[in-house]
Amino acid sequence: MAKTTEYFFKEGCFIEEWHNSSADDEMSVARVRVEVNKTTKPHLLRNTKERYVLLDGTAQVTVGPKTWMVEQGDIVVIPPNVVQKIQNVGSSDLVFLAICTPRFEEQNYQEILD
Questions:
Q1: pTM for the full model?
Q2: DSSP secondary structure of 37-86
Q3: Contact 47, 73 (CB under 8 A)
């Protein structure tokens, strides 16, 4: 699947799908961009493991009860069904790859109220 045009997702970030196809249900790859001083909404992915590969920026990430700082080159592993969010604490856009197994499907996204 070719890259798609970047779009705003209800989670609070911009997404560019690099690979997400029913022909490859086992995984998806998306480029994610979070603007300065923005935080994604707390959410989980039902039955989907996610990995963030930090390409640019600095962030505070929360996975379940743990919160820590991440920067370019770091990888965050998020187990299925675990609440997560990421806050851009840097001075430029935060950019990372979101790699999901199985592939990301919107019906697996569940927003969590604080």
A1: 0.94
A2: T-BPPPEEETT-EEEEEEEESEEEEEETTEEEEEETT-EEEE-TT--EEE
A3: no
